[in-house]
Specification:
four-stranded mixed β-sheet, 23 helices, eight-stranded mixed β-sheet, alpha+beta, single chain
């Protein structure tokens, strides 16, 4: 027995070390939750500007991480508080599995050490913090339910309260635990009492179901959709790769244990007669089916199906009978072991190879996670380098996260952790540390998010690039001929924001920065810059002869998006040649479009009077720099043949 507790304590220490070996663990959606928890507790900090755009909400679910992280924020800065919260989540997950294994069979607690091997898993690296914590809580609740062989009214009330707690932490995790409790109640009841047991279970689940129902509210919730798994083989493989993750030696043993546990249950008549194991098998098999067959994404919930893989594999793996039933044998001193004594807890006379293998596997898995964290942090050093720079912001900031993969392949299945893009939301760390807000925030659903927008983002924010632009630029096969245009397109939104947070390839960064940005911080692939641009002034000749309004547009060549648009009315041309300043013009090449709107339709037509140097569509390209920003336009009549064709 002592050997087990020593082993579990050692694994706990290594797990804590794997969190604290870095000052920050890069994760996919993690920065979103870091910001929301921090902003909810710093809305009154005027220097950060949060309160102008955000307000507190009243979420009812997905609060597991926020509760732990928020408690730590009362005493610690956000980075140490995050490490404390992640440590709690990892230990709750691991010890929840240990507790469930021990509740099934005391000798089987050694098998529960797989909880440490799987604690650093795909859902954690994806940043699904509340789901990760709630799943661990679910294993603990299941352990209590198994341990209490009969449920008194008091214990039923306690289980109902635990289920509500898990639903508040995360509704999806609570749903799986509720299924297990229902299966356990029915399995333990004789046939004539099953309807009664079902009624009790419905009453127990009603409060948690109410939390889940209240958390389902209308909201934008639109988030970046990643490449999914379409084929059957990919969906089945996702059950493996989207659980523990990492190299095959780390992920596949969990599948092998689950398959062995399921096979042992099916082949053993004693196991099939055990109501606790029947409930475990049913819940594990059902979770496995949902993971393989359910939709990959739901509205407001990316990666729905893979979230059932942990419960599927853990529940089935714990069906493996590691306790040994052997004939009694003599012990030193003439004593005899009792029939059925387990050998796994490690008697001095017999070392269990299975126990040693389980401890070794858990240690190896945790050691891999430790090294993965250090490597990931090192590869993310540029992206995180500006967090300690004394920059203060209070207005919208534009994230241009053009290369968030940090050396990982573009193919989501070829990454160390499938679908993980560790620096995807790195901008949220900067608005946490330095202030301001970002258009990419997950703050739109009041029943799930601790803070929400005061106004819809499209009202509160300047125009922002579409969310899928970064995904296009991540793709190494993206058309190089269109890349420059797309880079100018996304950069053309920067003038409306207080600054720009740019993470990209150095060549891409150079394309953007030459358009007139002042750099506040730069290291390697990451830059914080503010837009200044170059002064541009358009002077017209021949405008005094105009008989109609003049249309003017401008944009960042070669992108086609118009960043400036105005109409010079006829009255403005009577005092002589007008001069039109082009607001927020970039340095470098700028396209201009000028036309006298002869048919008053507010559109450029071939028959309109255009600048002499313009093409048929009225556009021409100029080069602008700080010393050369005055452009002259001589309005001329269209070619008579063109005008004739226009009127025809």
């Amino acid at each position: 027995m002592k050997l087990f507790w020593v082993s579990a304590a050692l694994l706990s220490v290594v797990a804590v070390g794997a969190v604290f070996c870095v000052d920050y663990l890069p994760t996919n959606d993690g920065p979103q939750h870091v910001f929301m928890g921090f902003a909810a507790r710093h809305l009154d900090d005027a220097s950060r500007g949060y309160a102008r755009y955000l307000e507190r909400s009243f979420p009812v679910s997905s609060l597991g991480f926020d509760a732990v992280y928020g408690a730590a924020l009362r005493f610690l800065p956000w980075r140490p508080a995050l490490r404390v919260a992640l440590t709690v989540s990892v230990l709750v997950w691991a010890w929840g599995v240990v507790a469930l294994a021990g509740a099934l069979q005391p000798a089987r607690r050694w098998l529960g050490l797989i909880g440490f091997a799987a604690a650093f898993q795909w859902s954690l690296y994806m940043g699904f913090f509340s789901f990760h914590l709630a799943t661990g809580l679910g294993f603990g609740i299941a352990a209590f339910a198994v341990w209490r062989r009969t449920w008194t009214p008091r214990e039923r009330a306690l289980l109902a309260g635990m289920l509500v707690l898990e639903a508040v932490a995360h509704a999806f995790a609570a749903a799986v635990t509720g299924v297990f409790l229902g299966a356990l109640a029915l399995s333990r009841s004789p046939a004539r009492r099953r309807l009664h047991a079902l009624g009790w279970m419905c009453l127990m689940a009603l409060p948690a179901a109410s939390v889940a129902w209240l958390s389902h509210a209308k909201g934008d919730g639109s988030q970046l959709q990643m490449d999914g798994a379409g084929s059957w083989s990919a969906r089945l493989g996702m059950v493996t790769s989207c659980f523990v993750g990492g190299p095959a030696w780390r992920s596949w043993p969990m599948v092998a244990l689950a398959m062995a546990g399921a096979a042992a249950f099916i082949l053993s008549a004693n196991a099939r007669r055990d109501p606790d194991q029947r409930a475990l098998f049913f819940t594990g098999a059902l979770s496995c089916a949902v993971a393989a067959l359910a939709p990959l994404h739901l509205h407001s919930w990316n990666f729905f199906a893979p979230r059932f893989a942990p419960c599927a594999l853990i529940y089935l793996a714990l069906l493996l009978p590691t306790e040994s039933r052997r004939r009694s044998r003599a012990l030193p001193g003439g004593a005899r072991a009792r029939e059925g004594m387990e050998t796994l807890p490690g008697f001095p006379y017999k070392r269990s190879g299975s126990a040693i293998a389980l401890v070794a596997f858990a240690l190896a898995s945790l050691s891999w996670a430790w090294n993965y964290h250090r490597d990931l942090r090192q590869r993310s050093d540029d992206a995180l380098s500006g967090l300690d720079v004394p920059i203060v912001r209070s207005s919208p900031r534009l994230p241009l996260i053009l290369d968030p993969l940090q050396g990982e392949p573009f193919d989501p299945w070829a990454r160390t952790m499938p679908f993980v893009v560790s620096s995807l939301s790195v901008d949220m760390l900067y608005v946490t540390e330095q202030g301001g807000v970002s258009p990419s925030q997950f703050t739109s659903i009041p029943t799930l998010h601790p803070v929400v927008w005061r106004k819809r983002p499209e009202v509160a924010f300047p125009p922002s690039p579409p969310k899928d632009v970064s995904h296009l630029l991540m793709n190494p096969t993206f058309d190089p001929g269109r890349r420059i245009a797309l880079l100018n397109y996304v950069a053309s939104y920067a003038p409306g924001f207080e600054d720009m947070l740019l993470l990209g390839d150095p060549a891409d960064t150079a394309v953007i920065l030459q358009r007139g940005f002042q750099v506040d911080w730069a290291k390697g692939r990451f830059t914080i810059a503010r837009f200044h641009g170059c002064p541009l002034r358009l002077v017209f000749s021949g405008a005094e002869q105009a008989t109609h309004a003049i249309l003017v547009q401008a944009g960042w060549y070669p992108a086609s998006r118009a960043t400036f648009s105005t109409v010079i009315e006829l009255a403005q041309t009577r005092g002589g040649p007008p001069a039109m300043p082009i607001a927020q013009a970039p340095c470098g090449k700028v396209w201009l479009q000028v036309a006298e709107d002869l048919n008053d339709d507010r559109q450029v037509n071939p028959g309109d009077r255009l600048c002499g140097q313009a093409a048929k569509d009225g556009r021409f390209v100029v080069e602008v720099d700080p010393t050369h920003g005055e452009i002259h336009c001589q309005l001329v009549d269209a070619d008579p043949a063109v005008r004739s064709e226009e009127h025809r």
